[in-house]
Write a structure and sequence with these properties.
Radius of gyration: 35 Å
Number of domains: 5
CATH topology of the largest domain: Heat Shock Protein 90
GO molecular function: phosphorelay sensor kinase activity
CATH superfamily of the largest domain: Histidine kinase-like ATPase, C-terminal domain
Domain Response regulatory: 633-749
Number of helices: 23
Strand order of the largest sheet: 10-14-15-13-12-11
Function: Involved in the transmission of sensory signals from the chemoreceptors to the flagellar motors. CheA is autophosphorylated; it can transfer its phosphate group to either CheB or CheY.
Strand content: 15-25%
Keywords: Coiled coil, Kinase, Phosphoprotein, Transferase, Two-component regulatory system
Number of strands: 23
Distance between the termini: 77 Å
Helix content: 40-55%
Structural class: alpha/beta
Modified residues (Phosphohistidine): 50
């Protein structure tokens, strides 16, 4: 290995060490500013400085050795009670931490000697009591911004410290940490998701074998009938013997086929379970604690507060909340904007807080938590709140609305103006604020994250910003729809509601088709026209509509069918395709079918263009009257009213004729009295359970060929085998139950509803 390569490798190792140890210094020095005698933090900072000194000495960074040594001296003096750390000491130590982090950058070298001199002076003349001095931070606002920019260019997820920082932390750091590139994690997730999808293709093969087995059973039944006819007609014994031999061969083939089907089914079940575990594990590897995005934020808040003459304390709740690393990376900039906004706009000066009978130290709380499969982050301060009267005046002054309308605006409507581009309540532009960029940038970034931002306030008590976004960008909960014979996916987060509306309710307003929804006229747009697909004939006399919202306006996108919800793994499209209009990404369904995930924002823009051009097509031109056909009958047997009615509704929506029974006994009585094409039954029921019902069906000469599906909460392998051994043709666990799973299984067993 050449000396140059060795030097580069050692320098890279030093950078990793510096990232880890300066993170410790930044965090614990802020604690020491409030608790200057805390032994644990003093010990941790001393060891971090000592480690940096040793690392700098190994690679020959003499200036780094000097600055780390004098920092260590200050911390040792504080440990021994010879020095009481004040805000001025913390300023100098934090400045030293910054220099050590960027010691390889020639631009910081000029600051080293003055800082060493300053630390030596502070060490010789320790202050007696802590105090707040607004302008003692050596770096100005531009330096803080530059530091944040430098941090943003380094990896967001800093490596864990290699050594134990203190005795009481050793248990927390016992887990080994391995540095893996985000690219490798993305590849792992991609491969695991593809393996899961590939295994889904085994199920149709198993189902095809099952259909073949049923067909053979029916053929065997016909042979038995033919053999009986021959016996009655006293045909020759040779013909009878040949038919018996054929029948024996058929039975042997049935036995062999059943054996191989069972092996394939077992393999599919085990392999799919393992692939799901692999995918879940790969997905968890992308998840990081929320604390990662807060690295350096306490320091930024503290430095900014001191530069403005304010005492500020940042508290973080839910720092262990797990979030996708890509989401954390995108969340960093909005958080910086909101924290700077809280320090500058939200919190009062110490004098103002004293007059308001508040603690001199202002508090900013960042709270992260999961809510309905999403991440919510609250950024809350205990400052002055927002002057709504002043905000109304500014809106009128900047001609955003007139005086009369401004006085009619509600508080949420008023606050929404703060997110407009270039809007600021500051009359003068400073280094920190006044240009109206911060909140607009937050709104834009949350929009890009498929999330949202909202604001509430209490005058004199403070403000709260709430950010809501997906936990991960790798998967997306979607509504599957059919458009012109193809399946597409709408991200659920953008959908206001899904409707099924009779065609008679369409009204004509301003030359366009609308429906009324909650007293609002909603424009109707055909999804096939938006996607430039040909219309398909629709046999139903109602419309399936997906409602999308753009600010205060609703649009109704008509589709051929609403197929149900499904969680999809997002697969980016090949970059060579460029940006495809109205398309966000791709995905693969559980059955292996590829689908396109629609870009809702793009669709809304396309909708506006169609409306403005006056080229909207009628949404009901392909609808025809429903034909009257003979429908297949399904018997649903379940003691749960909710499950029973849900299954009935799903089957009715697909066109089947459905009857229901509350338990196995009632179901058995109905089967003996009526004809059905399929039985869907639960297992645990009073009077007669599902296993007993299936057993009776298979023993009855008239019903033994009737297809039976078991739908049960019991998803263990032994429970599944009990149902199949009893004679069920299909076993569906309710834990994995969704609309399309049930309907696909029914179609698989008996075909579509109409003959």
């Amino acid at each position: 290995m050449s000396d140059i390569m060795r030097d580069d490798m050692m320098m890279d190792l030093f950078r990793q060490e510096a990232e880890a140890q300066t993170a410790v210094l930044n965090k614990d020095l802020l604690i020491l500013e409030r608790q200057p005698t805390s032994a644990a933090e003093l010990e941790a900072c001393m060891r971090a400085a000592h480690s940096l000194k040793g690392a700098a000495r190994i690679i020959g960074l003499d200036e780094g050795v000097k600055i780390a040594h004098v920092m260590e001296d200050c911390l040792v003096a504080a440990q021994e009670g010879k020095l009481l750390l004040t805000a001025e000491h913390i300023d100098a130590l934090l400045a030293g931490s910054d220099i050590l982090l960027h010691i390889t950058d020639p631009q910081v070298w000029s600051k080293i000697d003055p800082l060493i001199l300053r630390l030596e002076q502070l060490l010789q003349t320790p202050a007696e009591t802590p105090r707040l001095e607004p302008a003692l931070v050596e770096t100005n606002i531009d330096d803080i911004a530059s530091s944040l920019l430098l941090e943003a260019t380094t990896p967001l997820l800093a490596p864990e410290p290699i050594i134990n920082i203190s005795e009481n932390r050793s248990a927390d750091m016992g887990e080994r940490v391995l540095r893996v590139t985000a690219e490798h994690l993305n590849q792992l997730l991609d491969l695991s998701s593809k393996s899961l999808v590939e295994l889904k293709r085994v199920k149709p093969v198993v189902d095809a074998f099952e259909r073949l087995r049923r067909q053979q059973r029916q053929t065997t039944k016909k042979l038995v009938s033919a053999l009986e006819v021959l016996k009655e007609q006293a045909q020759t014994m040779d013909v009878e013997r040949q038919l018996e031999q054929i029948l024996e061969q058929f039975n042997e083939y049935q036995t062999q086929l059943q054996k191989h089907m069972q092996s394939l089914d077992d393999f599919n079940w085990q392999a799919t379970r393992r692939a799901q575990q692999l995918y879940d594990t790969a997905l968890m590897c992308r998840m990081r604690p929320f604390a990662d995005v807060m690295l350096g934020q306490s320091r930024m808040v503290r430095d900014l507060g001191r530069s403005l003459g304010k005492q500020v304390r940042l508290e973080v709740e839910g720092d262990t909340t797990q979030v996708d690393r890509d989401v954390l990376k995108r969340l960093e900039a909005p958080l910086i904007h909101l924290l700077r906004n809280a320090v500058d706009h939200g919190l009062e000066t110490p004098e103002e807080r004293m007059l308001a009978a508040k603690p001199i130290e202002g508090r900013i709380t960042v709270r992260a938590y999961h809510h309905a499969d999403k991440l919510r982050v609250d950024v809350e301060d205990d400052g002055r709140g927002i002057d709504l009267a002043n905000l109304r005046e500014l809106i009128v002054k900047r001609q955003l609305t007139n005086q009369q309308t401004a006085h009619q605006l509600t508080e949420p409507e008023l606050l929404s103006f703060l997110f407009l581009p270039s809007f600021s309540m500051r009359q003068t532009v400073t280094e920190v604020s006044g240009r109206g960029v911060g909140l607009d940038a937050v709104h834009h970034e949350m929009h890009e994250l498929r999330g949202s931002v909202s604001l509430t306030q209490q005058s004199g008590l403070g403000t709260r910003f709430t950010l809501e976004m997906p936990l991960t960008l790798s998967i997306i909960r979607s509504l599957l729809v059919e458009i012109s014979g193809e399946v597409y996916a709408f991200p659920l987060g953008h959908i206001e509601r899904m409707l099924s509306v009779p065609c008679q309710e369409i009204v004509q307003l301003n030359g366009r088709q609308h429906i009324w929804y909650q007293s609002l006229a909603v424009s109707l747009i055909s999804a096939s026209q938006l996607l430039q697909r040909s219309d398909t004939a629709n046999e139903r006399d109602d419309l399936s509509i997906v409602l999308l919202r753009q600010q205060e306006t609703l649009y109704g996108i008509t589709v051929d069918k609403l197929l149900g919800e499904q969680t999809l793994v997002v697969l980016p499209l090949d970059t060579r395709l460029g940006k495809i209009q109205d398309v966000l990404a791709g995905a693969v369904l559980e059955n292996g079918t590829p689908v396109l995930i629609l870009d809702v924002e793009d669709m809304l823009r396309s909708t506006e263009k169609l409306i403005q051009s006056g080229s909207l097509q009628r949404v009901d031109r392909g609808i025809q009257q429903q034909q009257t056909l003979l429908r297949k009958r399904v018997l649903v047997v379940d003691d749960s009213l909710t499950v029973r009615e849900l299954e009935k509704k799903l089957l009715l929506s697909r066109g089947y004729d459905v009857s229901v029974a509350v338990d196995g006994m009632e179901g058995w009585n109905m089967l003996r009295a009526e004809n059905f094409d399929l039985v869907v039954t639960d297992i645990d029921m009073p009077r007669m359970n599902g296993i007993e019902l299936v057993t009776l069906i298979r023993r009855d000469s008239r019903l033994q060929q009737l297809p039976v599906m078991v739908v049960s909460y019991k998803d263990r392998e032994e429970d599944r085998m009990r149902g199949l051994d009893a004679g069920a043709d299909y076993y569906l666990a309710k834990a994995s139950f969704h609309d399309e799973a049930l309907l696909d299984a029914v179609v698989d067993l008996i075909g579509e509803a109409r003959t």
